[in-house]
Amino acid sequence: MRFRQESIVSAWACIVSASAGVAFAQENAPAPVPKSESSQQGEPLTLNQAMERAGLRAFGARIAEQSREAAEAKVSQARGAALPRLDADAQKIWFNDNVNKLAGISPQLPARVTTGALQVSQPIIGLGPLLLQIQAASLQADVARNDEATARKDARLQGAEAYIRAQKASQLVSIAEASLQVTENQTREAEALSRAGRLNKAESMRFELALADAKMQASQARITYELASVSLAEILGTPGAVYALETPADSRFEKQRPPLPELGAALKEAAEKRPESKNAAAGIQISEYYKLASNLDYLPSLNAFARYERNFEAKDAVFPAGSPAGKTYPKEDIQDTFSYGLQLKWSIWDWGTRWNRSSEYASNLQRARVQKEAVESGVRLDVTSAVLSLRGAVDTLETSKTSVRLAEEVFKLTKARFQQGQATTTDVISAERDQTRARGGLVNARGDVDIAWLKYQKSTGVSPETK
What we know:
Blueprint: H1 2-18, H2 20-23, E1 43-45, H3 47-57, H4 59-82, E2 85-94, E3 112-123, H5 127-195, H6 201-235, E4 243-245, H7 252-256, H8 263-273, H9 275-296, E5 301-311, E6 317-319, E7 327-329, H10 331-334, E8 336-345, H11 353-419, H12 425-459
Parallel strand pairs: 1-4
Antiparallel strand pairs: 2-3, 3-5, 5-8, 6-7
């Protein structure tokens, strides 16, 4: 029995030694990331380029752009309603002589009338509500601009998240393929030793099980990478495109090493810069304008007008008609009419329409005030979550670095103990899996800390940026 155990130990020492060139080539690097072939095909793409493209092409940003243009057009509409208005109208009227026998006979009742007119009108008392509507429309345009800026920030963050997810997936494919290669080499050596009678079947099957698991992990990693690549292309507005991604050894956060934010300072910055807070304040002011405009509806409207009209069917006329002493007026002197004046209109009873409209705007005003409180609360929660998430991501990154270092050291020591007959094949396989898992965890931690950093920037009202 002792001889058999020594033979197994010797056999596994040969396996580990044969595969050492592959298995331990990564020992001295904290977290090696071999480049996957699939991640190196296609157009080169950096993280900043992904953010720029997403900010321009993302659906949300493009929709917000159109909403902003529509809001700006409403400002011009409101301004136009307060300026003098020029109207042109034309009429052609036929009079039925079956109803009135004088139609077409009496100068006062011609057979037909053709007129054209130009009229200029300008609201006077009604100008107040129109000016308030201009102010409200201008604020709504500002809100739309802020919404567009927010949408572009959201799109930049979405582009960054999609890029980092694809980048992580690519690196995890490389790690899984490297692990698979190690396991394949060990399995081949085990099979050879088993055929030579130097290794029992149970020990050989352990590596076969490890190989099956490694193949499954590699397959899942490739599928995850393909899905991440498709998602990245869709978010960038380039469906079907394939990009070659960067494979840096360190995260952007590690390279730039920005100081961790203080929560109080972050909350203050967000209160000053977050467009949501500005929009909430603008919403209150807009509601106040509409409420005041609805109150002014109770006043009469007074319009000034000037009208120039021409009767194209006019004929020469004698006045007084039928009198021998009557004076003949040529049609050129009587076909045109110019009038001007004031028009006063006051709605006395409208079945409560104005009162209900005023009540509606009063409710909208109260709702806007509550919404402002809700927005401010949401901003505080968002900033707090972003700050804490960034701190947690940094802590996880440091822990992951330590885990990789320890896992590699454990693998190295387990190998040495196995060669001395003090560890089993299960210990070696487990140590190799722990090493692979730790390296994958470090890849995820590096991506997560960059995402957390970008989310923190956005939470304070700053456009997500990595320099």
